[in-house]
């Protein structure tokens, strides 16, 4: 399925191109994002050729590092605050770095490792997720979840939750557990939400409650998108996009630029690219040769799908306002790199699966990687 | 499938795929809903956001008088306005504004607080016309204040001060209701000045022109990014009025001298051949200038509380009993309904059905002409009684009483022509023949405006055509091209035969020649008129309706004085006389000069304006024709006065009455204006005795 890999690359590049076009229209420093894009593509292709099973080794370290970084963000002087939330770590001349993005990738790896305790062929009797392991996974997601949520960055925390949920679901966790958890989560939600987050929910239910404040962004986003019509106003010609009528329109509200300037055609094109990308990922997931790979791919897919649906849903007024970037499109290096990395890992899974096409899977012992192409193994 | 996911895993994956797929479809559907279905709405909202449409007010049309004198124009000025919601650090800003504009801070604060509650982003004008001093202070002190704007604009300039203010009307800032009524009309926006009354109001849309439109592309902070002019402002049309400002000024001057606070008066001068209104004066008058610069609350309240109601024109916005001037209508009805003819003779014994003639001893035997000339009440009591209310109403309506004349003024009073139903409704009483009798002499419920009386007089003068009086002769663009011209056509013809109206005119001529209106006599010009004196709860109202030259009418003058006391002939007629003298360029004969030597004024400028009226020929013509007329009227006594060849007629019957005076008109008028050639009555003889 080499074509699938190429299709995956193409989709990613297409999305990034669309994102850069939109960014270029509203930000003078879109080139910086382009540089991150180049870095991301290199990372994606590089990861394709690293056997994903090798990632088992770094999973724990990456996880610990992410949690540490999330902790560091909270420290005054190190974390960079913006609009009342501590979300960024300064990397000196390299700019800033958002640990919550790295935490997404780390969580995918960590859960994949935790839920596939040994490298096993998939035709083995599928190990159900035991109650103990379910609780363990909850602890694994809970630590970064809480750390991001108190930044506060509810959006990223929800992405972590979504990753966990989907991976657990595919890993075979009881739908009863999962459903119960969602219900109880919704139950406690009103008590843990910040005032402004509660307001966001209310404003989502009725944006005209506060047209000059919270509802402003949502109404403006809808107006900007709607005013694009079918063909759009043309790049650089969107009156609302160009003159700051939609705040945050290079990050969480970037779809308003595409909507206003490229119109329905641009928006449906974007959706089509996402649909193909997610379809390809699901296909890789279905054809993965082991449980670990399957879980890695579903984690990445969950991360991307959730961000796409929630971000666009918010912009279109179908969901409450939550700060979540649009993958490959929104301005932000960390998010772009993490998205590309996820695709790189998925491509690796696809590459390995293709390498084993037509052969029967080799039964493996615990953490035995012998079926892996020897040339790729160092030890 | 031998590898890949287990069955359960594949099912779960498919479930997730379906969920995400559905989500994507929902998003796609929502995109097309926003961008295709609701496109127009969102585009409009986006434009509202991103494009600030600035409207620049066009120059307002000017007023000119009939001879091209500029009456009302515009003068540039500066104003200070605020958007209360935009002001930062309100107390400091208010302090600065109070200092710059020299308005008490509390006053500014009151206005701003009120606006903040209602519409914080609507413009609020704090000072409409800045003085030099205010402007200098505002420019230096208010420049950096957010939400405070110093802007060039213009306001009305009145070249003849208070003159004709009731006709022009006054300007004011558009009110919320006015704005709401004109919603969707792009020429009216907040902060606009709008004509509130008079011509300013009636022709507001013509005068205001078309606003210029500038599209400012703005950013989210409201800063203008790019300006495109979509439409240049088009100045409003200039109105060339029928008003002759010199007549208007004279009328106002005469009125001012004649009235006593809180009572007023009115003069209407009109061309009976067209309905052209040459002067429409009312006193007391208001000053339109404070309105143009934004009238203060106290100033306005003072104006509203003024007992003399200067804001209401007595010429067309208030109605009064017409008194004996109504006999023009009663006599028309009597003649047309064949109750009498122009040759009929009547007997006045001093009262009818308990209603007294104003000459208590009665007029004795009089003919139709004398009944008008001497203003016999008994004749018209009887006539009205025989006519009855329905027939009286018919002729009132024919003359246009009881309804607006249709002049281009917004708040015209319709007056009142009573009916039994009216009396029942408002007075809870039935209609008695006494009501007819009262109405026959213009008393009782009947109410008319001086303007309506001018229309009535015109119709009598011109032989039965009822014209709509009008004020605007033509409209010109500011570049001078003719946009519209009035073409007067009669709105109605009276159901009264020309020879009947001629009989009435004979009576009116007699009024001035030997009757109650002798005070209006001008040597060399025959005037026809009718006096009126109205009994009120206080002093009498006095009227004089007239036209001249009597045989070829070209000017109607109606004079009304509210509660002036005295009689129509004594109070009102001399005012009309002055106006005729001005119009026909006849100078007051100096004492000692022979009265016939009235010389036409040779003012080249004025004569040029009215080429058709030759000052020298007309008086001669008029006076030449009068002996014949007097003969027609059946006068039995003529006398020469001075060197004038005009003869004066006086019936025998009149001498009886004159001895029984105080009667209408003559005594005061004759003694007041030193008429040299009046004969017959004792009082006029005393006046004549003053002559050498």
Provide a compact summary of the structure.
The complex is a heterodimer of chains A (379) and B (692). Chain A has 379 residues and is mainly alpha-helical.
Give an account of the 3D structure:
The complex is a heterodimer of chains A (379) and B (692). With 379 residues, chain A is mainly alpha-helical. Chain A has helices at residues 2-26, 30-48, 55-74, 99-115, 131-149, 154-171, 175-192, 195-205, 214-227, 239-242, 255-287, 291-315, 333-355; strands spanning 79-82, 85-90, 96-97. Chain A starts with a helix and ends in a 24-residue tail after the last helix. The relative contact order of chain A is 0.17. In chain B, helix 3 (90-101) packs antiparallel against helix 5, helix 10 (245-258) packs antiparallel against helix 20 and helix 15 packs across helix 17. By secondary structure, chain B is an alpha+beta fold. In chain B, 39% of the residues lie in helices and 18% in strands. Classes of the chains: A mainly alpha (379), B alpha+beta (692).
Please write out the topology.
The complex is a heterodimer of chains A (379) and B (692).
Chain A lengths: L1 H25 L3 H19 L6 H20 L4 E4 L2 E6 L5 E2 L1 H17 L15 H19 L4 H18 L3 H18 L2 H11 L8 H14 L11 H4 L12 H33 L3 H25 L17 H23 L24
Antiparallel strand pairs in A: 1-2, 2-3
Chain B lengths: L6 H31 L1 H12 E6 L6 E2 L5 E13 L7 H12 L3 H14 L5 E4 L4 H10 L6 E11 L6 H4 L2 E3 L2 H6 L11 E3 L2 H5 L1 H5 L3 E7 L5 E8 L6 E4 L3 H14 L6 E6 L6 E7 L5 H4 L4 H9 L21 H10 L8 E4 L2 E2 L2 E2 L7 E4 H6 L3 H23 L20 H8 L5 H8 L9 H13 L2 E2 L5 E5 L5 E4 L6 E2 L4 H16 L14 E7 L6 E8 L6 E7 L6 H16 L20 H6 L7 H16 L5 E2 L8 E2 L2 H8 L6 H8 L8 H8 L3
Parallel strand pairs in B: 2-10
Antiparallel strand pairs in B: 1-8, 2-3, 3-4, 3-5, 6-7, 8-9, 10-18, 11-12, 11-23, 13-16, 14-15, 17-20, 18-19, 21-22, 22-23, 24-25
Helix pairs in contact in B: 3-5, 10-20, 13-15, 15-17, 20-24, 24-25
